[in-house]
C-alpha cells in the first residue's frame, strides 16, 4: 500500500521521537520497534500463537504501547484492563479473554495479583513491569531475544471489554484479516482522515503530536492514540489529567490533536482567566471529543477560546458513528453530527420500523467492512442487531438533513467523566447486603462529571434508613467493586416501584432528579 504504518516508519526513521512518557522521558521509534519485536519473539517462544490474546494492566505510557505494538504485528488480540477494577473483576476479564499472558505494572500490584489468582492463569505466563509478587520480571521474557522483525507477521487487534446491562462485561472481538500489519495500520488511518488530520511522517511532512489525556483502557483513547502513532505522530502521555498541566503540555510539545471528554472542557474553563492566558495553545488544530453529551454553553465557550478546532463524534466500541465539524455544530448546536462516509444510521420504533425525521427512536448503526461479536455471547451479539445494523440502546432523532441528536439512553447506562458505568453490576453487589431489601441505581445530573451515581435503597424489614445504613452499604463494596462505580449518595424508599411482573420502574425514581434539565442523559 502506501508509506504509513508504525513499523515502516520506524525502520525508515528510527530516530523520530515516537512517544513521551508522563514523566517526560522520550522514546524513539527505533527503541519502541526493538522492544515490540523482542516481545513477539519472547511470547512466541512461550507458545503464543496467531488469534491468541494477551492482557495488560498498565498505566498510560510506553509499557502498554509496546504490548499494543507487539500484538498488532503478531496477529494477537490485546486487551488493556481498566486499572480501577478490583481483583475479581480483573480476573474475570483475564479468564474470559483466554489470555495467554498477563502483564501487570507494579503500580497495580495488589489487585493485579488478586486478578491473576482469580483467573487461574499459569504463573509462568504472569509478567511484571517492576516488582509484583508471584510475577516474573518482563526481562525474563525478552532478554536475549532478537530485536529484528519477526517472521510471519500479520495484523492483530485490540479486544476491549464493554459492559452489558446485565452486569458482566463482554469483549468486542473483530475478525482478523491476516494482512500485513502496516497495510492494516494504513486502513486504520481513515479514522483520523475523517477529521482531516494529516500524517506527521515520513520526514518532510509537518510534524504532528497527539496528546493522550484519558486512560488508555478506553477504546477511543487506544484507537486515536494508536492511529496517530501509525500515521507518524508523536504520542505524548498524561498520567493524572489536570487542567493547567494539560495547557502546559500542549504548549511545550506543540500538540496538534487530542481526544477529550466534556469533563475536561469543564475543568479547563474553570481555570482563572489569567491562568488560561498564560499558555499558548494555538498549535491545537483538532480537539476531538466524545463519550458524553457536551452541554451547549460549554462547547460554545471552548470554541470561543480555542477557535474552530473542537470536533465532536458519536460512536461505539462495536463500530460506526457520526462526526460534527466545528462549523456544522455552530449551525446545529447540540448535534453529534452526521454519519461517517462508511457508516449508516437507522432510527427505529419499538417494533423495529424506521421512524420519520425529527422523531425519537432507538439508534442503530453499521460500518462497512467490519464484523464483530461479543466474545462467547452469540445471543447478545444477535439480540443487539437489526439485519446488519447494531444498537447500544441509545435513543435519538435525525433531522431531515441527517444530523443526529441524542435524547436518552434506553439501557440506563451512566456516563460519569466519560466512563461508562452499568447500574446492574452495582445493584447486584448492593442487594447482597443483609439490610437491603431492594435497590435501584441510576445516573443523576452532575455539573462536573455529566452524571453521578445515585442508589435508591428499600431497607430490609426492621432496618432503620439513614446515614449510618448508607455508610455501611458503601463499606460493604470495598474490594468487590471499583470505587468509580460506588454510588455518590444513597436515598431510601419505603417500597420500590415495580410492575406486577417484577420489572423495576426506574424512570419513576429517576425523573424527579432530571425534571429541571433539558436533556435526560
From TrEMBL:
Any Pfam family matching the protein: AMP-binding
Domain AMP-dependent synthetase/ligase, chain residue ranges per copy: 7-368
Entry keyword annotation includes Kinase: no
Entry keyword annotation includes Ligase: yes
Annotated keywords: Ligase
InterPro entries: AMP-bd_C, AMP-bd_C_sf, AMP-binding_CS, AMP-dep_synth/lig_dom, ANL_N_sf
Compositionally biased residues, Polar residues: 155-166
Domain AMP-binding enzyme C-terminal residues, every copy: 425-503
Region (Disordered): 140-174
Stated family: Belongs to the ATP-dependent AMP-binding enzyme family.
Entry protein name: Acyl-CoA synthetase
Amino acid at each position: 500500500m502506501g508509506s504509513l504504518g508504525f513499523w515502516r516508519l520506524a525502520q525508515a526513521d528510527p530516530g523520530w521521537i515516537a512517544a513521551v512518557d508522563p514523566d517526560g522521558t522520550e522514546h524513539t521509534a527505533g527503541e519502541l520497534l526493538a522492544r515490540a519485536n523482542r516481545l513477539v519473539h519472547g511470547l512466541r517462544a512461550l507458545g503464543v500463537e496467531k488469534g491468541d490474546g494477551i492482557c495488560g494492566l498498565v498505566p498510560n505510557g510506553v509499557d502498554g504501547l509496546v504490548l499494543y505494538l507487539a500484538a498488532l504485528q503478531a496477529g494477537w488480540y490485546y486487551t488493556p484492563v481498566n486499572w480501577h477494577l478490583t481483583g475479581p473483576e480483573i480476573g474475570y476479564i483475564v479468564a474470559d479473554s483466554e489470555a495467554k499472558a498477563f502483564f501487570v505494572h507494579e503500580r497495580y500490584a495488589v489487585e493485579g495479583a488478586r486478578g491473576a489468582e482469580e483467573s487461574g492463569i499459569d504463573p509462568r505466563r504472569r509478567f511484571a513491569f517492576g516488582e509484583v509478587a508471584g510475577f516474573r520480571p518482563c526481562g525474563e521474557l525478552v532478554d536475549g531475544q532478537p530485536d529484528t522483525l519477526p517472521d510471519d507477521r500479520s495484523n492483530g487487534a485490540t479486544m476491549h471489554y464493554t459492559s452489558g446491562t446485565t452486569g458482566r462485561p463482554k469483549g468486542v472481538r473483530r475478525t482478523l484479516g491476516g494482512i500485513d500489519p502496516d497495510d492494516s495500520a494504513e486502513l486504520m488511518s481513515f479514522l483520523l482522515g475523517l477529521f482531516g488530520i494529516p500524517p506527521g511522517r515520513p520526514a518532510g511532512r509537518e510534524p504532528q503530536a497527539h496528546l493522550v489525556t484519558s486512560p488508555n483502557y478506553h477504546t477511543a483513547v487506544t484507537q486515536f492514540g494508536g492511529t496517530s502513532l501509525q500515521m507518524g505522530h508523536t504520542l505524548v502521555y498524561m498520567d493524572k489529567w489536570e487542567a493547567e498541566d494539560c495547557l502546559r503540555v500542549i504548549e511545550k510539545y506543540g500538540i496538534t490533536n487530542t481526544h477529550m471528554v466534556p469533563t475536561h472542557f469543564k475543568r479547563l474553563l474553570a481555570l482563572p482567566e489569567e491562568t488560561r492566558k498564560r499558555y499558548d495553545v494555538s498549535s491545537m488544530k483538532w480537539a476531538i471529543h466524545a463519550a458524553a453529551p457536551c452541554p451547549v454553553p460549554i462547547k460554545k465557550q471552548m470554541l470561543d477560546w480555542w477557535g474552530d478546532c473542537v470536533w465532536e463524534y458519536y460512536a461505539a466500541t462495536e463500530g460506526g458513528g457520526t462526526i460534527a465539524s466545528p462549523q456544522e455544530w455552530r449551525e446545529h448546536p447540540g448535534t453529534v453530527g452526521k454519519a461517517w462516509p462508511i457508516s449508516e444510521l437507522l432510527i427505529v420504533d419499538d417494533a423495529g420500523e424506521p421512524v420519520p425525521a425529527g422523531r425519537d427512536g432507538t439508534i442503530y448503526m453499521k460500518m462497512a467492512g467490519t464484523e464483530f461479536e461479543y466474545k462467547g455471547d452469540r445471543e447478545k451479539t444477535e439480540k443487539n442487531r437489526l439485519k446488519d445494523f447494531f444498537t447500544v440502546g441509545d435513543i435519538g432523532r435525525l433531522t431531515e438533513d441527517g444530523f443526529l441528536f441524542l435524547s436518552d439512553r434506553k439501557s440506563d447506562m451512566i456516563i460519569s467523566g466519560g466512563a461508562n458505568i452499568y447500574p446492574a453490576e452495582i445493584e447486584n453487589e448492593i442487594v447482597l447486603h443483609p439490610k437491603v431489601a431492594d435497590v435501584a441505581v441510576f445516573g443523576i445530573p452532575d455539573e462536573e462529571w455529566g452524571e453521578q451515581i445515585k442508589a435508591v435503597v428499600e431497607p430490609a424489614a426492621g432496618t432503620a434508613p439513614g446515614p449510618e445504613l448508607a455508610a455501611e452499604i458503601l463499606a460493604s463494596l470495598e474490594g468487590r467493586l471499583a470505587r468509580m462505580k460506588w454510588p455518590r449518595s444513597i436515598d431510601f424508599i419505603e417500597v420500590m416501584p415495580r410492575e406486577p411482573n417484577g420489572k423495576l420502574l426506574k424512570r419513576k425514581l429517576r425523573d424527579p432528579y432530571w425534571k429541571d434539565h433539558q436533556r435526560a442523559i
